[in-house]
Design goal:
About 10% of the residues lie in helices and about 50% in strands. The chain contains 2 helices and 30 strands. It has helices at about 1-25, 65-70, and strands at about 35-40, 50-55, 60, 75-85, 85-90, 95-100, 105-110, 120-125, 125-130, 145-150, 155-160, 165-170, 175-180, 185-190, 200, 205-210, 220, 225-230, 235, 240-245, 250-255, 265-270, 275-280, 280-285, 300, 305-310, 315-320, 325-330, 335-345, 345-350. It has a 4-stranded antiparallel beta sheet with strand order 3-2-1-30. A 4-stranded antiparallel beta sheet has the order 4-5-6-7. It is globular.
Length: about 350
Amino acid sequence: MKINKLLSLLLLATILFASCEKDSVDLPKGDYENGVLISGEGSGAGTGSISFVSDDFVTSENLIYKTVNNEELGTFLQSMTFDNDNAYIVVDNQNTVTVADRYTFEKLGSINTGLILPRFIAVVGNKGYVTNWGSTSSDTDDFIAVVNLETYEVESTISVGNGPERIIENNGKLYVSHKGAYTTNNVISVIDIDSEEVIEITVKDNPDELFFNNLGELVVLSSGRTIYDTDWSVIGTTLASISMIDITSLEITNELVFAEGEQPSLMVFENGAIYYNIGNSVYVINESATSLSSTSIVETEGFLYGLEVEGDNLYTLDASFSDSSKLNIYSISSGSVSITKDVAIGASKIYFN
């Protein structure tokens, strides 16, 4: 009798443990899990902010960081980077990187000293690497701030060329595009994290977006430069390109050059395909393509300022700096808008959470 009772109790305990374990796995991490996050730069009309749209597109909410923390991020919110459960929110005019839980957006801390016009951050282990434009009066004081993410303090800096922008890490090296800040530049910096040695690769003018494709190549979008005369009238542009770079030799192995006057500004990579824009037209090519496409897949509405792709959905931002921006979601297969949501002022970037 006692043995049967003991066995029954053990069985019940096993069932309860399994049930609790399952419940703990299924518990939501926060209100902003399983959705799309949109960062807005802000303007004189309103603070930089973050919007949320649920995966089923039913729920949307603006100013989520302000709602949770009762404080504003300030202008201009340039970018967000995620690492595990943390979101790192870079606001250049405030010289800050704010750290928040990516699912609840509860503030965890901030880096607010040692930064001068920060732009983007890459996280490697317990270190953050932040691109900084430095003083607007100098083209030679730009740097990467090395941040201890346990103390939220800048430990050191790495000097780089003018206008460092996007930054990504691969196999112990940092790759930085130099858009040129308030002027222009045409290089990618490759930084060895251990030695902090910096090597530059020359590409077309004003490189910005960059990522690694499935072939292990570094892919860089260079928008080209607008040329002005002494009266600031536009007199021409330099050529734009998508460059594929072998990271062993640091040589450009494939360069897709746009026609004169075409200045793409956005590029994303999804499932082996490269999506890019020319004006309001969005094109797609295979990652191993040897030529650009001549046929757009979507004609977008408004001021195209942000672009992302997931499955058959093409997400675009029609940015307004005086009022709410629009998140427009297009069906790639049909080319038409399926969902529109009001989002942050100066909306510029889209993230899947």
